[in-house]
Amino acid sequence: MFGGRPSPSGWSLRARVSAAVALVVFVLLALGAALFYLVLRGVVFEDLRDRADFVINDLTVYVRVADPHDTLPVRDADFTLLQVVNVEGRVVASSESLRGRAALDVPLPGEPGRPVHRTVTIPGEGRVYLVSESVLTRHGVEIVHAGAPIIVFSRYRGLFIGLLVGSVLLGTAVVAWVVAVAVRRALRPVRAMSGELAEITGRGAGRRVTVPGPHDELAELAESVNVTLSRLEAVLSRQRGFVADVSHELRSPLTGLRAQLEVALEHPEDEDWPAVARAALADADRLQGIVSDLLILAKLGAGVHVARERVDLGELVRSETARRPRRVPIEVHTEEGIMVGVTAHHIVRLLTNLLDNAERHAASRVWVTVAADGPDAVLEVVDDGAGIAPEDRERVFWRFQRLAEGRERDRGGTGLGLTISRDIARAHGGTLVAADSDKGARLVLRLPLDRR
User: Fold this and answer.
1) Among candidate residues 81, 19, 20, the one with its CA nearest the CA of residue 55
2) Most buried residue among 127, 156, 249, 310 by CB atoms closer than 10 A?
3) Which parts of the sequence belong to the Histidine kinase domain (predicted)?
């Protein structure tokens, strides 16, 4: 706000564009009008100057030859004010228009042959274009004046300037109005999109803004808005599903833990309290695992930046597989120098999840291989278990999705291990899939190679 009025930054787009265009047009028209006036004035006075030179030359010759002492003949219809004055200031001769007038009160010209042009005001005649020259006669030096009244030019100059100013203002107003109307029509689809967006809420699933025609920048904007709405709808759907799954998974162990404690407290003298504590601890461990996995998923989904380093994937796999004993032996085959740019502890978590999953389902052995394939580093974990049916190869990566065999082998799992592993792979620009295999399950991780 300035002086109680809103500043231009608070104006609408239509008002700002119209004002900017009007200002530019006003400046251009004003400059054009001023230039036109100056050119026209220059043309008028240039014509007067040429004719004045001709008149004064003719008059000086006549005065030098005829030595007039009475009336001077007028030979140009515009230059009717003629006068000859001697050096003492006495009028020697004049035209009918100046008969009986005193000598013109103007500065004397210099040496003969150099006329002086000026614009003066003569009483009774108004503005006059006057040319004066000294001429050498038999009586000595005399001053010759020739003047043309410019009453018409002077009289209508104000009107002419007023017309120019009016034209500039009218032209500016017309252009501003045209621009305002054009901008209003151009922004009509934007207003429509704005209204549609205001009506779209969380309950308006599937609604999209109207794409205007023809295919121009506004149509591209509408298409971009629709793409964004689709992404937001997908995120909202995943969030709702995630909240529903989380509430279900957390409710089960909490309900079981509460029921165990309530039953134990009803008959405390009959309970085996170490057994109750162990059961409660098992439920607490499961709750801790679920919460820990949910925190990791939340960080990965939020895109929290974590520093990355150059890691030898083969060496990392060898060290992690040898870190603790497993139920079944693990055979590791890695190529040398498979370098990737990753967050090491995230890849360790991914590898641990894959090994735990393979160990859970393997009958007698697990194979882990690391190799380069074009621009990617490829990590494969294969077990000799029952494998994953083709229709379940995507479902195993869903949150809290556990196949029947997995629930039988490990009832304390959270169902988030493979989900977290895939999110880690995607966060590093890679992929994690369940691929075809001749024996058991085969999980394949691809990460971009770091060739620095």
Assistant:
1) 81
2) 249
3) 245-451
**What range does the domain containing 153 cover?**
14-159
pLDDT for the residue 7: 59
- What tokens does 313 get? 């994937």
* Strand, helix or coil for residue 144: strand
Residue 26: predicted pLDDT:
92
Q: Is residue 109 domain-shared with residue 229, that is, in the same domain?
A: no
The number of domains in the chain is: 3
Among residues 445, 363, 441, 364, the alpha carbon closest in space to that of 403 is found at 441
Query: 389 lies in a domain?
Result: yes
107 and 84 in a common domain: yes
Going by the DSSP 8-state scheme, the letter that residue 98 receives in this structure is G
Lowest mean pLDDT of 178-182, 203-207, 229-233, 367-371, name the range: 203-207
- Per-residue model confidence as pLDDT tens digits over 104-135: 888 888 778 788 888 888 887 788 889 999 88
State if pTM tops 0.90. Answer: no
d(CA 380, CA 369): 5
Helix, strand, or coil (residue 202):
coil
Shared-domain flag, residues 277 and 335: no
- The last residue of one of the domains, among 159, 180, 203, is 159
Do 28 and 98 fall within a single domain?
Answer: yes
* Residue 344 domain flag: yes
Name the band, by pLDDT with cuts 50, 70 and 90, for residue 2.
very low
CA distance 35 to 276: 101
63 and 108 belong to one structural domain: yes
Rounded to the nearest 10°, the torsion over CA 167, 169, 172, 176 is: -130
| Percent of the residues in the chain that have a pLDDT greater than 90, as a whole number | 17
**Per-residue pLDDT tens over the stretch 319-352:** 888 887 888 899 999 998 899 998 888 888 889 8
Residue 269 is part of a domain; what is its CATH number? 1.10.287.130
User: Which amino acid, one-letter code, is at 402?
Assistant: R
The CATH number of residue 392's host domain is 3.30.565.10
Residues in Cβ contact with 27 at an 8 Å cutoff, skipping those fewer than 6 apart: none
Q: What distance lies between CA 75 and its chain's CA centroid?
A: 72
